[in-house]
Design goal:
This protein is an alpha+beta fold and 416 residues long. The protein has twelve helices and eleven strands. It has four domains: 3-95, Trigger factor ribosome-binding domain (Alpha-Beta Plaits, 2-Layer Sandwich), CATH 3.30.70; 96-131 and 240-285, no CATH class; 133-227, Chitinase A, domain 3; 286-406, Trigger factor, C-terminal domain (Trigger factor, domain 2, Orthogonal Bundle), CATH 1.10.3120. The strands form three sheets. Strands 6, 7, 8, 9 and 10 form a five-stranded antiparallel sheet that branches. It has a four-stranded antiparallel sheet with strand order 1-2-4-3. A two-stranded antiparallel ribbon has the order 5-11. The chain is extended, with a radius of gyration of 30 Å.
């Protein structure tokens, strides 16, 4: 008979013993699969395959029987095994207890948008720089110029790994290279060859290079400066913005674009403050395994985002001079906050019966289809209904809090 043992707060274990005909049949089925796949029929292989075939059922039955809400994938622990039986434990975290306090005092206020002259200049500069051209420069390189160089780095007279490159493109002043490197190139012209010592920072992130003295030989092959076009009607036409044909139209477009971006930023800041207020009246302890799962989700998302830009997480960490362990540790506070916010929003939804309807879920599928330019059917294949339903539920709770946060104190007590 399956049992549920709570080992610590919000973490427990389902324990089940498989024996008799049930376990014998599972092993026979496993042997048939191994034989069909021409795999070696060892005792370990038979047991592992037979157990794997039963785990989903054990997990589902236990979750249903004890009304559990799993928050992590189960970890398997074979506690006892004999010729005729096996006892297995499935340990996982469940939804922790959440105590939602009085939420009537929360506030949601989006700051007004005011587009200043400086904001306009920044917005216009983005368009100008998008049409900028790099022009070869005959004079010495200055901060802000771009140089193309070959360089060879040596330590104790020997070249070191990743210390050399040809046709490297550097924006002087960007601090892409170790301290002191770019400053040596400032003032040099195309065709210059130079040699200089530098010292890697103590916390560079590569053990063999931390704090080490090296020498670089550099050949400056090209010096270029950025030429940014002036704003006139001819420039505006090159942007090919619908409905924008002259400078007046362009400035109006920039003002609207900047205002929209500022509005989105202000809304995000107001939402963050709203969630801070919510967490201030919420009591919940999140076990480490749940936070660890959220960290994994964040890493997966970052991997996907970097891949879409042609980069990798490894290259990203190298650029930041951060180890994988340091990176994971840096994500932990945000991951813990994400989990707490979701749990608190769930409580708000439950307390106020904010359950998503089928029409709301269908509407969200259509929004996602438009956003990603996919057929609705393909979106449904990629995103399970229960997953999307949960996100809609959180959004409804968030909207509820936003509306509540705009009102004055008073009225019914709307908390769990």
């Amino acid at each position: 008979m399956i049992q549920w043992n709570l080992t610590e707060e919000a973490i427990g274990e389902l324990v089940e013993t498989l024996d008799g005909q049930e376990w014998a049949k599972a092993k026979m089925d496993a042997m048939s699969v191994l034989k069909a796949q021409n795999q070696e029929m060892t005792d370990d292989a038979i047991v592992q395959l037979a157990l794997n075939a039963k785990l989903d059922g054990i997990f589902a039955d236990g979750v249903k029987k004890f009304s559990l809400v799993p928050m992590t994938k189960p970890k398997i622990d074979i506690k006892k095994i004999t010729a005729d039986s096996i006892t297995v434990g499935l340990m996982f975290a469940i939804k922790p207890e959440v105590k939602l306090g009085d939420i009537r005092g929360i506030r949601y206020k989006v700051a007004d948008v005011e587009v200043t002259d400086a904001d306009m200049e920044d917005g216009i500069r983005v368009y100008r720089e998008s049409k900028a051209q790099m022009v070869d420069k005959n004079g010495p390189a200055e901060l802000g110029d771009t140089v193309v160089i070959d360089y060879v780095g040596t330590m104790d007279g020997k070249e070191f790994e990743y210390g050399s490159e040809e046709d490297a493109v550097i924006l002087l002043g960007s601090n892409m290279f170790i301290p002191g490197f770019e400053n040596e190139i400032v003032g040099k012209c195309a065709g210059t060859e130079l040699e200089f010592p530098v010292t890697f920072p103590e916390d560079y992130g590569v053990e063999d290079l931390n704090g080490k003295d090296v020498v670089f030989k550099v050949t400056v092959k090209k010096v270029q400066k950025q030429v940014i076009p002036e704003v006139n009607d001819d420039f505006v036409k090159t942007l090919k913005i619908e409905g924008v044909v002259n400078v007046e139209d362009f400035k109006s477009h920039v003002r609207k674009t900047v205002a929209k971006a500022m509005r989105l930023r202000n809304e995000q800041e107001a939402e963050n403050k709203l969630m801070d207020d919510l967490l201030a009246v919420t009591e919940v302890n999140v076990p480490g395994p749940i936070v660890e799962t959220e960290v994994g989700t964040m890493v997966q998302k970052m991997n996907a985002d970097l891949a879409s830009q042609g980069a990798t997480l490894v290259s990203y960490l190298e650029m930041k001079g951060q180890t994988p362990e340091e990176f994971i540790k840096s994500l932990w506070p945000s991951a813990e906050r994400n989990v707490k916010v979701s749990l608190a929003l769930e409580e708000v939804a439950a307390a106020n019966k904010l359950y998503p309807s089928n029409s709301e879920i269908e509407a969200e599928y259509k929004v996602m289809a438009m956003r990603y330019q996919m057929d609705v059917a393909k979106v449904k294949q990629a995103v399970p209904a229960d997953q999307l339903s949960y996100q809609v539920l959180l959004n409804k709770a968030l909207d509820y809090l936003k509306n509540l946060g705009k009102k004055r104190p008073g009225g019914p007590i709307l908390f769990g």
